[in-house]
Amino acid sequence: MILSMTGFGRGCSTSPTKKITVEIKSLNSKQFDINMRVPALFRELEVEMRNRLAGCLERGKVDVSVSIENLGVESPVIFNLPLLESYKKQLEAMGEALALSAPNDWYQLLLRLPDAMKAEMGKLEKEDAEAFTDACHSAAEALMEFRAQEGRKLYDFFLEKINNIRALLLEIEPFEEARVAKIKARLEDQLSRLTSIDYDKGRLEQELIFYIEKLDVSEEKLRLAAHLDYFLQTLNGDEEKGQGHGKKLGFIAQEMGREINTLGSKSNQAEMQKIVVKMKDELEQIKEQVLNVL
After folding, report:
1. How far does Cα 240 stand from its chain's mean position?
2. Which domains does the chain have, with CATH numbers?
3. Which of 51, 2, 34 is nearest to 232 (CA)?
């Protein structure tokens, strides 16, 4: 079953001191493109996690965000006392120089100044690293499940569109014989008006047969039907890991487009051209959605 490149997954895990939440969003892309926003505490694990996600998700524009909630008694944020002391001295010096009175609330004033508080990095504990890894795996699994759900919707969509094109292909058949007879009658009518010109009727018949054969669409119909079958076969096939369906389906859709365009150029009849236009509309919808397939 095909997978979509679009998806979202969230994973949570806890250590004795922290609750770690990982969110992963994925959109369609020609290759694997990942952007990770990881707190400084987990930076040493970022490269390993990038590689694991690349192997799991294969393709897509992936955005990963990690948040930490402290569960311990001690706060991870501390006052920047040396900086606050420097701020206070400078403010007092400014007050003396400008003859200003002292502020009523030093605490409120100092804590509003830049970098008054700073996060305490601390050491990455083994339990925290394991919780981070578990949260990433849970988020990736949730994302893959989301991709599978979207893939089932895409499968139904493609099945409907392929069946529509196949039905339109059958609608062409009634016009084929009438089209050839109409073309032949039109040519004979035009030649009958050329009373003053003598021509070789045998040679004319050969040229007429050659012209009609050029307008024959049997091969295009057969090739288009084969492409439709191959598209469905690929939808139902199990590709090897790392070999997703999306690019292959895109190539098949291109080949379908070539046959439909040739049908249009050979149709030489308004009714058939209308059917070809409907085929093109169905195919364009397929091409748009193929871009979302992994």
Report:
1. 20
2. 7-73+125-146 (3.30.230), 77-119 (no CATH), 152-290 (no CATH)
3. 2
Residue spans of beta strands (DSSP E) within the chain = 7-14, 18-27, 32-37, 60-70, 77-79, 117-119
DSSP count for the chain of H helices, then E strands: 8, 6
Give the list of residues 6+ apart from residue 285 with CB closer than 8 angstroms, or none.
157, 161
The SS3 of residue 73 is coil
Amino acid letter at 279?
A: M
Looking at residue 6, the DSSP 8-state letter turns out to be -
CA–CA dist 265, 274 (Å, integer): 12
| Beta-carbon contacts of residue 242 (< 8 Å; ≥ 6 apart) | 58
Please tell me whether residue 291 adopts helix, strand or coil conformation.
coil
Which tens digits make up the pLDDT trace of 26-81?
999 888 999 998 888 888 899 999 999 998 888 899 999 998 887 765 556 677 78
Residue 31, classed as helix, strand or coil, is coil
Reduced to 3 states, what is the DSSP secondary structure of residue 113? Answer: coil
For the full predicted model, state whether its pTM sits above 0.85: no
- Identify the residue whose tokens are 């700073």: 118
The pLDDT value given to residue 98: 87
